[in-house]
Amino acid sequence: MLRLSCVLVLAAGMLLMAPDGQAKEAPIASKVRVIGHRGASALRPEHTLASYGKAIADGADFIEPDLVMTRDGVPVARHENEIGSTTDVAQHPEFAARKTTRTIDGHAVTGWFTEDFTLDELKTLRARERLPAFRSTAYDGQFQIPSLDEIIDFVATEAATSGRVIGIIPEIKHSTYFQQRGLPMEDRVLAMLAAHAYTRSAPVEIQSFEVANLRYLRDKLGKTHPNIRLLQLLDDAAAQPYDVVVAGGKLTYGDMMKPAGLHDIATYADAIGPNIRAIIPLAADGTLGKPTSLVHDAHAAKLELHPYTFRPENHFQARNFWQGSDPKTFNEAGSIAEMRAYLDAGIDAFFTDDPALGRRAVDGRQAL
Predict the structure, then answer these.
(1) For residue 350, how many other CB atoms are within 10 A of its CB?
(2) Is residue 91 in a domain?
(3) Model pTM?
(4) Share of residues in the chain with pLDDT > 90 (%)
(5) Where would you tag: which of 54, 133, 225, 291 has the fewest CB atoms within 10 A of its CB?
(6) Does 20 map to a domain?
(7) How far apart are alpha carbons 37 and 46 in whole angstroms?
(8) For the chain, how many structural domains are there in total?
(9) Distances in Å between the alpha carbon of 326 and those of 205, 319, 323, 333?
(10) How confident is the model at residue 2 (pLDDT cuts 50, 70, 90)?
(11) Across all residues in the chain, what is the average pLDDT?
């Protein structure tokens, strides 16, 4: 009997059959997209124009700016509004008195916060590597914090130079927190997107771990902005979106990942962004386990899956992909192999700290 040597693709969104007989899922997206997670954050300090530029040069289809607010109401790119770990603010004596403790989404956080600084003040700071135990600090002190306006202009220029369209996938961070502080972000972000010719037509996907702001954006956008899609991010199953917590609701991310929850998400969003381990969890020994039903269930609800995050260091990979025993080893082959395991599971896009490896995982797989 002839043995199959490759996956048989039946149709987009339908099950596939692998050589080992295990059912797999096809993506429903027309093309699997590589998302530069905070840019090329494995290679440059995250959320800097240098990081976004490296991601674009390395073939990312989208770059991802996480957005937080300044005191004067400007969305800027930082993973968190606390900036002590990603800038040199602690070395600026003029800002020493601004160190404080805030409760962010129910958790006490001590440091310096973007909402206590104007954009001009933030521009005096310089970015530094957030994961110095794993990544180079050679670029510390070189790059500024960019605003959303600057990012859009930069991406538009890079797109014109490269001759290809580059999408932007901004995340609205801590929506409820900023609303409570009188700095709501959603309308400001939409206004900035509308103010630039590039983002009036280029692909944009707005993402959030909260729910109410995405529902608001869906109502606001209607069907008049076909280039703007919405992505519901999903955290650990037992956790709750913070806007649900504030409202006294019981909904968990685990509920949202069940078939009924996915069908509800599909009423206001186009895709979900779960942790990669919600799609293929790790076994007890740290190796990659078997896929859950999440991809199939999401596709059944007409939702794409854009999971996060693939990283090139051993420490962040399933143990069966490790190269050697040092957690800090930059393991290109392991990262590509892990991404391909998830591509086989049917994901439609993915976030990676090294878009060059993501590009190789996608393009090389298509050539097989």
Answers:
(1) 25
(2) no
(3) 0.93
(4) 91
(5) 133
(6) no
(7) 8
(8) 1
(9) 36, 11, 8, 15
(10) very low
(11) 93
Mean pLDDT, range 161-177, rounded to an integer = 98
CA–CA gap between residue 235 and residue 211 (Å, rounded): 12
Report d(CA 193, CA 212) in Å as an integer. 20
Which amino acid, one-letter code, is at 245? Answer: V
- Which burial class, exposed, middle or buried, applies to 68 when counting CB atoms under 10 A from its CB (0-12, 13-18, 19+)? buried
CA 87 and chain centroid, separation: 20
Q: Which string of DSSP letters, residue by residue, matches 82-104?
A: B-TTTBSGGG-GGGGGG-EEEEE
Map tokens 């970015």 to a residue: 127
Q: Look at residue 295 and give its three-state secondary structure.
A: helix
Q: How high is the pLDDT of residue 366?
A: 65
Pick from 119, 164, 165, 169: which is nearest to 146 by CA?
Answer: 119
User: Which of 8-17, 167-176, 238-247 is least confident?
Assistant: 8-17
In contact, 196 and 147? CB cutoff 8 Å: no
Structure tokens at 158: 């890079």
- Residue 180: domain span: 28-80+131-367
